[in-house]
Amino acid sequence: MNNHYFIGIKVPLQTAEFLTEQRDSWGLSGHRRYPLAEDLHITLLFIGGDPHDEIGKVAEALKEIEHPSFELKITGTAYFGKRERPRVVYAALEENMMLNTLQEKVREALQGFHLSPDNKSFVPHITLANKWSGKEVWEQIPQIQTDSFRAEEFTLFRIEPAGKPRYVAVKTYKLKDGV
User: What is this structure's pTM?
Assistant: First the structure.
């Protein structure tokens, strides 16, 4: 299988541990995957495979992005799918124009490559559980405490399906204040 890639913002470890501790306290069993704290992130753009061996050029193109760092606020818990059988349970983020602008810059930087990035609408989130397995029906989605952190960098990640952590940084890019 070819490597798959995405570009994202890694959640700082202290915040990630705070989120996973809350999630683990819920005693979930209905999903097949509960990401490690080290794997928590906000996906800016899922790239998928690299059939034309362009990832090195992608890494270079991402270096050209100029964007200031910014604050992100976790506002609670949300889900994709049906409430009683959520495909994905995630930490929701407050609407943030700086985050949306960075995501647009990332998407623009990848134009011209022979990649097939995800074209879904950008819904910023931090996945806490996914891959519904049907073992339980949820009465309600458990809530998490709010928190915030500063996004100071973004990363090109390679997905290692059997790895721990599962997402390996290929290249990390600092966000620069005053840009």
Answer: 0.93
